[in-house]
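Can you make up a protein sequence with its C-alpha cells?

===
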Amino acid sequence: MNHLKNRKPSIKQQLDKIQSAEALMQFFEMDFETPFINIHGDQLIKRFAGNVIIRQPEDWFDYRRCLKNAYCRIQRSLLPKGGRSACRGCSSCERR
C-alpha cells in the first residue's frame, strides 16, 4: 500500500489541473511570447487537445510534441500567404 501513496500523478491527471495556456507552456518547459499566448492561448489549448486525441501520446515528451506542433501551426498560420517566408516561430522546430 505504501507504493500507492508515493505514486506520482499521471500526465493526464496533471494536465487536468492546468488552468491556462501559460501554465501549459511552463509545464512542458517551453519558451513562449506572452503577447502571443494572450491572443492565441485558447486556440493553442484547443489545437493541443486535438493533437492529443489524434496522436494518443504515451509519455511527457509525446505530449510536449503535441503542444509544440500546435504552437508551430498557429505561428505558421500567421505568416503572409503566398510568400516564401520561413516560419519564425520555433528555433528548434522539427520542420527545419
About this structure: The chain has a mean pLDDT of 85. Helices lie at 2-5, 11-16, 21-27, 34-55, 60-77. The two ends are 48 Å apart (CA to CA).
